[in-house]
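The records we work with from here on pair a chain with its fold. The integers have meaning only within a learned vocabulary of local backbone shapes. A complete example follows; check for yourself that the lines match position by position.

:::
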Amino acid sequence: MYFIKSGSEMPTYDYECQNCGHLFEYFQNINDEALKECPVCGKEVKRLIAGGLGVIFKGSGFYVNDSKKKTQPSSEKPAAAKSES
């Protein structure tokens, strides 16, 4: 896979050539027109839909080991205080 950089801080788009199968990424402005020509063979390319980045959760409460209210299992409930007469 080749990387072709046309600018900085722009989205990356994946392309695949319909003729030779060449896969490449291209950095371009979101408003720019999609590429039409393969840099290897010059034939038609198709812009691929990428999955993008994964979701990043920041802060507390997203993981099992984070702090949370501690509950007692039903089998370990405290014994009721006995009243003496």
